[in-house]
Amino acid sequence: MAQTASPSGAHQTPHRRSHGGTSWATGGAMFAGVLLFVDGVLSVLNGVVAIARDNVFSLTGSYTYQFTLTSWGWIHLVVGVLLILTGLGIIRRAPWARVIGVGMAAVSVVANFMWLPYQPVWAVVTIAIGVFVIWALLTDRSRAAVR
User: Which residue ranges make up each domain of the chain?
Assistant: First the structure.
């Protein structure tokens, strides 16, 4: 791997930055913004369907966290809109977006854990996306060093 000289004279690999972050984590943070945006759009679509048609989703077994399907629709709709706005903020590198992104990803993980009986496979996929988003936003140091 080629090395480059930093202003202090120390050599670095191209994948390492002087502030300790990696370009991979930086790209991961941008990808996290896109994932939040897409997850938000899909959540809005789930919410609209659950509000409009109560018979689209069915409960698989008994579960402690039971809401009406219309309630779930509104939850998904509101969380989805907030995910879209946060994802756009991360893509635009807004200073507030990282912190809100971690919080919204955590809210999405919890909401999808509670949504498991209705859409188990999709809920697990969305939980995994949320965990990746949290990791990517917390490991990207490129914007934290600029401040």
Answer: 22-53+64-140
* Residues paired with 12 in a beta bridge: 4
Q: Provide the Cα torsion 43, 121, 102, 94; round to 10°.
A: -50
pTM (two decimals): 0.75
**Residue 90 CB partners (closer than 8 Å, separation 6+):** 29, 30, 32, 33, 36, 97, 98, 101, 137
Give the model confidence (pLDDT) of 34-81 as tens digits: 999 999 999 999 899 888 876 666 666 666 666 778 888 899 999 999
Q: Which two tokens stand for residue 39?
A: 């997850």
Structural contact between residues 145 and 29, judged by C-beta atoms closer than 8 angstroms: no
The rounded radius of gyration (Å) of the Cα atoms in the chain is 19
Distance CA 73, CA 48 (A): 6
